[in-house]
């Protein structure tokens, strides 16, 4: 346990580690920040000059409307210019003579599996895959779903789409067939890129059969997926049985023994990556994209339960991903950088793929989990590659703390300079452990607050200059103008909690919700005209540090994964025994938050352990294993307002065993509260 003082003191960056930092002092930060806010065009124009544009800006550098009362919300950066992000991430470095530099070290789930790929080899394979996609009729503007584990081919797939102007829609490989199908339908995708299967820890995930099921679900709803490209990731073996097709040897990276993984094959639709990609031409010209053309969509939970396809565009996202990466991690040539996030989430998009590659960085991609083969795995990898900049989530830090310091200290971590965190507020205890134990009281910690919607970091410390306060993401990144406001959009006093909003656009902000611009406007811009509303609560202390306190809408942040309570409720209600369900968040010592579900059963149905198991499985199938509820409670009745709205505020108190319910005057039937308290499982 850290002492109280350690939790509340301010930590200064170690100047000897940051002698050549991009930003060395707070004066320098303040000056650059001021320039970025007062003259965003000038600030970003200078940055844009370092990138390749096929044609220069032909209209306004920045044009926007953030105020719904003045017309539709619109944001455009670098009007009329054309570029390609894949060109800037790969070709540019190869042309500069850095083709032989390693782009990615790949570390498999099993410590014996490893690989690496240089910038020129990556470019070659991206071009080959891009040609395969083109040969399958995929063209600029078409949507391609990607459902893969953390293997190098995932980055190749994303870059190949970007090269030909296809919009990638990556679905995290922990999602179920139904969630994948829902996302493919919403995006009306033409093709799916997936993998036969993969190991996560000791668990084998049969990705191809989940993909098959998702494709069938799409076809039932009228969407035909005509191309399914499959990476053979598990080693070739007699035990792989295809019902149709052939079983050529592959030269995939993983060499572990494969377990009986049956891969079903649909002739004409399914194609093995290793048969078509190496055979394709290595030349593929880039599609020159308008800076405001779409680059990708990525689904994030929506408070109504239906996920939103957050859409990002080429030019602004490119500038923002590259610039945030450079400054937040104080990137320099020679760094070995490692972000543990999965590419299925925005952190993986921006800080595993685009940000590092745009800077010509060498990074590590890790397929496995922090706990396999043991809880020292992350530090063993840091040691093996001499990682200098490391980025992970508070949930991982909290879980690893439990295993004690020895598993960390066993490995050499003297290469580390910057430790990043992302995904949820980090509690000061975990921060201090990360700082003292992992970073040997030497490294700077960057607590980065941002969202799928923001494209890149929005509030973060900078490693060379920001005095760090454990638990605070500290100050805005260049171009971000935050305010903390009350319900009436008036700024709150120091140390008061309010809504965190941003009042002018930065290049990486999302441009719309795919296919539903109105939802984009209502979700983010309606509540406070003139501002982008993050949906998070925050406070600013007297020194100007921002402390993000968490979501203020019906969202739960479980281990850094944002889940909508409505989505979990609808999965529970689909079960034939359930009449009604209400899900609330509950603090959790490792996951940050967990879900506590109240279920009202049909007349005559008993609340048994078997039923609880079935309901958990229902959520797993509908959404994915990571969404499985932690606690289910029988709720013969739910507290409701007279107008019939479930009072989640009251349920949250019941879940926490807190009888101080506050004002319940609007509740229709107060007697349900006592019943719920009496049925509360004793194990909570
Ligand atoms: C990047 C990412 C976004 C939500 C966001 C907030 C929470 C992320 C945080 C943080 C406090 C941090 N969040 N980073 N809260 N401090 N450093 O996680 O994107 O999956 O869209 O989640 O995560 O609540 O609104 P996304």
UniProtKB/TrEMBL annotation:
Its EC number is 6.2.1.1. SUPFAM superfamilies: Acetyl-CoA synthetase-like (SSF56801). Keywords: ATP-binding, Ligase, Nucleotide-binding. It comes from the Eukaryota. Pfam families: ACAS_N, AMP-binding, AMP-binding_C. InterPro entries: ACAS_N (IPR032387), AMP-bd_C (IPR025110), AMP-bd_C_sf (IPR045851), AMP-binding_CS (IPR020845), AMP-dep_synth/lig_dom (IPR000873), ANL_N_sf (IPR042099). Residues 96-512 form the AMP-dependent synthetase/ligase domain. Residues 29-89 form the Acetyl-coenzyme A synthetase N-terminal domain. It is an enzyme of class 6 (ligase). One of its GO terms (biological process) is acetyl-CoA biosynthetic process. GO terms for molecular function: acetate-CoA ligase activity; ATP binding. Residues 567-645 form the AMP-binding enzyme C-terminal domain. Belongs to the ATP-dependent AMP-binding enzyme family. NCBIfam families: PRK00174.1 (NF001208). This is acetate--CoA ligase. It comes from Bugula neritina (Brown bryozoan).
